[in-house]
Write a structure and sequence with these properties.
The protein has about 170 residues and is mainly beta. The chain has two helices and nine strands. The protein starts with 11 loop residues before the first strand and ends in a 14-residue tail after the last helix.
Length: about 170
């Protein structure tokens, strides 16, 4: 019997990159993600006929709402600029609980345009930005490779007493 474990929101994280940088840059994790929501909508219109109702689908519409703590890193700057310039970004939602021994994880890949950006500054709180992306076409399921550096960026790994590095 297969056991089905619930998926926790903290185990699903987003990576992003400009589509125009796909040949030269690696995707980056969006720092300090608070939450994201992928919304699927497929409405249908009903046409009444003498033979009964006919339904026609409007097609799948997918949006992503994202909230994260505002930082001054390159990924945050890229996302904000993508809104201003109307650039297409790539997004990957990666399920960290699915990472296998071969270093791959289940992911959902999307190309999208960010259509808004808000970064309010509230007294006594971290500034959080929020944005909404309209996905172009249909999100695609697959697997991504999680490198050691990616994983260490997400969660530091165990180090031996004798290991040292200049960054430590």
């Amino acid at each position: 019997m297969t056991e089905f474990a619930p998926i926790e929101g903290k185990d699903k994280i987003l990576f992003a990159r400009l589509l125009s940088d796909a040949k030269t840059k690696k995707a980056s994790k969006i720092l300090y993600q608070v939450e994201h929501t992928i919304n699927y909508s497929n409405t249908s219109e009903v046409k009444q006929t003498k033979d009964g109702n006919l339904q026609q689908s409007s097609g799948l519409e997918t949006t992503i709402d994202l909230t994260a703590v505002l930082t001054n890193d390159d990924t945050n700057k890229m996302l904000r600029d993508a809104v201003k310039k109307g650039e297409v970004i790539e997004l990957w939602e990666v399920n960290l609980k699915s990472i296998g021994e071969e270093g791959t994880a289940e992911a959902l890949y999307m190309q999208a345009k960010l259509n808004e950006w808000a970064d309010p500054a509230t007294v006594g709180e971290y500034s959080e930005f929020s944005t909404t992306a309209n996905v172009i076409g249909e999100p695609q399921s697959g697997e991504v490779t999680i490198t050691k550096e990616d994983y260490e960026d997400i969660q530091y790994t165990f180090r031996d007493l004798n290991e040292h590095s200049p960054e430590a």
